User: Fold these one by one.
Assistant:
Number 1:
Amino acid sequence: MSLIPSYIHLAAPPFPYFLEGDRTVYQPGDQHPSRSRMGKFDLLIVEQGCLFIGEEHKQWAVPAGHTLLLLPDRYHYSVKPCEETTSFIWIHFHTVGEWIEAEGDPVYADREEHFKQFLTHPYTIRIPQFGPLPDPFERSGQAELLLQLGRGRRSSAVWQQQRIFEEMLRMMDLAQQDAAGSHAVEIAEQTEAYLRNHYAEPLTNSLLADELHFHYNYLARCMKRVYGLTPMEYLTDYRLEQAKLLLLRTEMSIARVAERTGFESTAYFSRRFALKIGISPLRFRKRYSR
């Protein structure tokens, strides 16, 4: 049994996508087959009995009401046969975005590399590799509905299956945020929303504290915990992301882009842009222009 909680962090968008799913029933003496490097995630939802499964050096006894997420680049094997009738739903999915396994606190996607590839700000979906089903997930019946759709016409089911699958991931992700400290998440999201809505304005630590009614150090701790960045680090990154969009989508001058995104001067904007992106704003624009 693995004692240290492990979490799988998936950068999105693009969101992971559903491939296939079904239900399997093992009788006493049956065991899960050994597989290596399947190239897709395998989410197991145990409904009855207990599965005994290993992945590389980890081993789990997965009882009813629990989930286990097997990773696409690992060796999976049966630890021992089932001791009782065991029923579980398996769901295969894949992601083209970055993912990482880590213990404890959240790990964040490489924001710059993610933007280069997808031209968007990443969100990290956090899913426990092993743990109990969140109450909303268990009550929702989403997994069963996902399987029922798989028995119908593919053309009518594919969109609904992806929507239901994303809702399942959402419930699992939000359950981990609540477990990690819902108040910190709430404060961090309020801070993020304020920064996004006012990024073009002059913002300071004291102004942020006054507007959000919390000491700046507390805001910084919440942001660091949830997003891996202080408010001012987040603000600078967000301003740069907005500047990239303006450089790509408009013919605004570099000076105008700097002004529109809240930088105090063109020189400071160009310096921070080159430091973060590796090239000047002008070269960035030329690189993606026809």
Note: The longest strand covers residues 17-26.
Number 2:
Amino acid sequence: MTTAAVIGGAGQVLTEDEVTAFIGDALAGAGLEGRSVCVIVPDATRSCPLPLLLKAVTEALDGRASKVTILIALGTHAELTGEQLRKHLGADYPNVINHEWWKPDTFADLGTITPDRVGEISDEMLRDEVPVRLNRAVVEHDVALVLGPVFPHEVVGFSGGNKYFFPGVAGQEVIDLSHWLGALITSSTIIGTPGTTPVRALIDEAASMIPAEKLALSVVAQSGTDALHAIAFGDTISSWAAAAEISARTHVKYLEHPVQRVVSVMPSKYADIWTAAKGFYKVEPVVADGGEVILYAPHVTQLAAMHPEIEEIGYHCRDYFIGQWDKFRDLHWGVLAHSTHLRGAGTWDPATGEHLRVNVTLATGIPEDVVLRANLGYLDPADVDLDALAADPDTLVVPNAGETLHRLAHTFPAE
């Protein structure tokens, strides 16, 4: 692994000129002359000044790269329309494609990861052979350039880097296996964990099979703004590692004591609970036993636009599924993982049922019967008084929730 070039740091804010100059210099020295480049960018669920970044990248590649394709890393999120793409990217770029994960011909087969290797990576939590499929646009270019932010993440520890390939533009098999591995470890254990977690190791193993050269401009965004704290450039591992170290000192807030209730106020970029659930992941560690997390998102009207099966499965802890694995093993493991991530820690017993550490309440536009059937609490958003809740000493109101991780200082001492 090489050493990444870095500009900025925790507590700093870069100017637009600094951002543009750094990207220009980085790509000028990357040996891209005459080579085709696939630029992989996030969808609209991540904070970063993508129009500024993409403008700098395309200007640096103009006259240098033989071809440039922009690929939207949807994972399994909804595709962006033409108007949404213009707003998201900041301009009408040629050769922009959504990752059409629902179409089989989207993918190229890269091979398989053996059961023995999966067992080694996962500390024997899983022993499954996993086919590795990736959007063929990545394979058909000489260089794959990841462009996007790094934040604490509920499945992998910190997002970014090779995660933009898997699950960003990957086939269902790697998505399901990696997410279920994260669920087995549990979100509250893995989120914000520095270094190479088992899920990160699995993703890196899959990424090693990509024939294109893999580079990354990994950014550390000022959450909720269009500002950047830092940019790291290098291969997808060194760039990510440098940005994750800065994110750990930027996107984690430490509390001295647990709180009885957290109200996560979700911004509009989270269009359903599938994405707005980050308002739970990022605060679960600071909620007292028996406490409550309220996801306040009046604009949200669906649990999962692209995964309606979650309405039938509902939200349950990990042990609920493990204890009844024969019943659930044939469902998409990624959906099961999402279910456990939102429901948090708990136990399940065949005689006494499910026992959950934290209550989860939705104050959204989703009908009450849908919410209750999914094993969540319901609160009419019209009855939520954020000012009164903020004045309650037992309640923490988190504005613009979903990106800053909250931890207890005595459990994870601040660096």
Note: The radius of gyration is 21 Å.
